[in-house]
Amino acid sequence: MATLVLDNGAYTAKIGYSQESVSVIPNCQFRSKTSRLKTFTANQLDEIKDPSGLFYILPFQKGYLVNWDVQRKVWDHLFGKEMFKVDFSDTSVIITEPYFNFSSIQESMNEILFEEYQFQSALRTNAGSLSAHHYFHSRPSELCCLLVDSGFSFTHVVPYCRSKKMKEGIRRLNVGGKLLTNHLKEIISYRQLHVMDETHVINQVKEDVCYVSQQFYKDMEVSQLKGGENTVVKDYVLPDFSSIKKGFCKPPDEMLFSGKYKTGEQILRLANERFAVPEMLLHPSDIGIQEMGVHEAIVDSIQSMPEEMHAHFYQNVVLTGGNTLFPGFRERLEAELRSLAPAHLPVSVLQPANPICYAWEGGKLLAHSPDYDEVVVTREDYEENGHFIYETRIVGKSSKKRPADFEVEQTTVVEYYN
């Protein structure tokens, strides 16, 4: 039986068969101002000739799946002939859901997967559990890891021990890629050009020019200097979707501080916005969000765990999600953790080669695991027992008690680290 792995994120869906490679596709529908009557789904975004003023129709709100009409249309597109040509009579599916998902959403998802699409078996789990499975598969000697998953809606900090998520250690920050893009739109609209309707373009600007500062106050001083002494400032050429299809940064030698450019080029000049926007991941209070930063949430999460586990969590902090791709994020987070962690404990922050698809790759490994048949729910199981069959078949099921295997292997692991 073929296994389809679907990491169903709030902004992108990572999908592919377990024997093949992954495809990253927008998990939403679009309408453009030039063709208001037509709705584009998922990767049909490429068909829109003028994406300026693009209107997103998202199935997720605040991290939870609430618009089933949009989600069905996206899934119909992904599962249909244009994309993966899924044969539901001979396919199993691994699909992700948010942490602390509502039971009503879970029940609806079960009904759609088994009753509408008629998959032969399904596994509904958290993306972090798949990432943890991937991590422990690549590092079998490790007992613990702490996942930082910074996505579109939220940033989650989740401790795992032997692939079991420690529920009491989960921390959620209401800071994600959507908030960062919206804040950048507000700054640019206030200082230079009204771009509040240009979510698609400004999201690209954010990905192209933003970075996490290693010395925030020093970079702030540099960004206020004049002329060539200002090494922070960047000039970004906005797309016009005729001659310029995609925006780009001007090379440093072509930047003109007089502000005179080629006719037809529309320029955004970005200075402290480049590092002030990603700084919200570490200091949400800068814009009035009274929450911990990522580094503080990590320390708080680890402190809630048994003391003998602390060293293993600090040494195995794993970054996943699109926001971890900001240049300098890993180095800054490691430095911030080093300043907060006990001096005798080593700190190591690890960034996978592809943090966006790390959970999907974990699902791919799980699909080929001999344990897969034990955790998956078959269509027959569901028809006989209903929604509650999932309570006994869940990957990364939380455990409030200290795992017994941690105590048994503690001596060996301490010797390994020393």
From TrEMBL:
InterPro entries given in the database record:
Actin, ATPase_NBD
Primary site of residence: cytoplasm
Query: Does the record carry Cytoplasm as a key word?
Result: yes
Q: Which keywords does this Swiss-Prot/TrEMBL entry list?
A: Cytoplasm, Cytoskeleton, Nucleus
Q: What is one term from the GO cellular component aspect held by the record?
A: nucleus
- UniProt xrefs under CDD domains: ASKHA_NBD_Arp6
- Protein localization: Cytoplasm, Cytoskeleton; Nucleus
Instruction: List, alphabetically, the Gene3D superfamilies matched.
Output: 3.30.420.40, Actin, Chain A, domain 2 (2.30.36.70), Actin, Chain A, domain 4 (3.90.640.10)
Q: Entry's Pfam families?
A: Actin
The UniProt similarity line reads: Belongs to the actin family. ARP6 subfamily.
Entries under PANTHER family matching the protein: ACTIN (PTHR11937)
Protein name, entry field: Actin-related protein 6
From which organism does this entry originate? Answer: Gasterosteus aculeatus aculeatus (three-spined stickleback)
What taxonomic lineage is listed for the species of origin?
Eukaryota, Metazoa, Chordata, Craniata, Vertebrata
